[in-house]
């Protein structure tokens, strides 16, 4: 993905991205202070927010190939299972029940499969959000602070699962995180933002 001549103004905030290349099948970290534009950039890259000017070249990817995980996962008023398979349903993909059980077991949610999703704890919601993002095997996954403020066990779980995905079927990841130490260990490339611009370090 390449972003060129991009500008976006929201109130007093102004973003400019002259030329940024996101190498495919790599894990990219986006870091910077609060208010620098990380989330705005991610929403533009995901196609949720239109830029005022400029282009985003997805290099052949379609919206069906891209997903985004938000800091506060939105869960529908239904079961854990129905939330998990929703990306498959809207793409006309038949759920593989054995695969679903394996995924839920991997994050410790198999016993909650038929539970009302909104009754989950915040940590469990993050786990369900992660599974829902990867279940349809997207080619690009954008993560907005979802992996921040995790306990050490969950941090290792998500890092391990991302590593497993990259070994089997590499995905392009864009991960926004304010915890520098955590994201540096996980990512192949780092991109730094300050006041709406990407800067070199």
Please characterize this protein's 3D structure.
This protein has 201 residues and is α/β, with parallel strands linked by helices. 33% of the residues lie in helices and 25% in strands. It has a 6-stranded mixed β-sheet with strand order 5-6-7-3-8-9, with helices on both faces. A 3-stranded antiparallel β-sheet has the order 2-1-4.
In short:
It contains 6 helices and 9 strands.
Span between termini: 21 Å
The proportion of strand residues reads: 25-35%
Q: Compute the gyration radius: what is it? A: 17 Å
Q: Enumerate the strands of the largest sheet in spatial order, edge to edge or round the barrel.
A: 5-6-7-3-8-9
CATH topology: Rossmann fold
How would you name the CATH homologous superfamily? P-loop containing nucleotide triphosphate hydrolases
Structural class of the helix and strand makeup? alpha/beta
CATH architecture: 3-Layer(aba) Sandwich
What is the number of helices?
6
Look at the structure and give the mean pLDDT. Answer: 92
Output the helix-strand order. EEEHEEHHHEHEHEE
Overall, the morphology is globular
Roughly how much helix do the residues carry, as a percent range? Answer: 25-40%
Low-confidence stretches: none
- Give the total of domains: 1
Q: How would you name the oligomeric state of the polypeptide chains in this document?
A: single chain
Largest sheet: 6 strands, mixed
- What's the total number of strands? 9
What CATH first level would be assigned? Alpha Beta
């Amino acid at each position: 993905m390449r972003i060129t001549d991009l500008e976006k103004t929201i109130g007093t905030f102004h973003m400019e991205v002259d030329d940024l290349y996101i190498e495919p099948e790599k894990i990219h970290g986006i870091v910077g202070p609060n208010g620098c534009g990380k989330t705005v950039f991610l929403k533009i890259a995901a196609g949720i927010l239109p830029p005022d000017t400029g282009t985003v070249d997805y290099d052949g990817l379609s919206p069906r190939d891209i997903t985004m995980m938000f800091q506060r996962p939105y869960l529908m008023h239904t079961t854990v299972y129905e939330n998990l398979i929703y990306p498959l349903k809207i793409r006309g993909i038949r759920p593989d029940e054995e695969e679903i059980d394996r995924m839920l077991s991997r994050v410790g949610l198999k016993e909650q499969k038929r539970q009302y999703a909104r009754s989950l704890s915040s940590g469990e919601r993050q786990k369900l959000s992660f599974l829902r993002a990867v279940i349809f095997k997207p080619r690009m996954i954008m993560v907005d602070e979802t992996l921040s403020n995790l306990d050490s066990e969950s941090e290792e779980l998500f890092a391990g699962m991302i590593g497993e995905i990259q070994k089997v079927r590499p995905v392009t990841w864009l991960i926004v995180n304010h915890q520098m130490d955590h994201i540096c260990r996980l990512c192949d490339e780092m991109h730094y933002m300050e006041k709406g611009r990407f800067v070199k370090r």
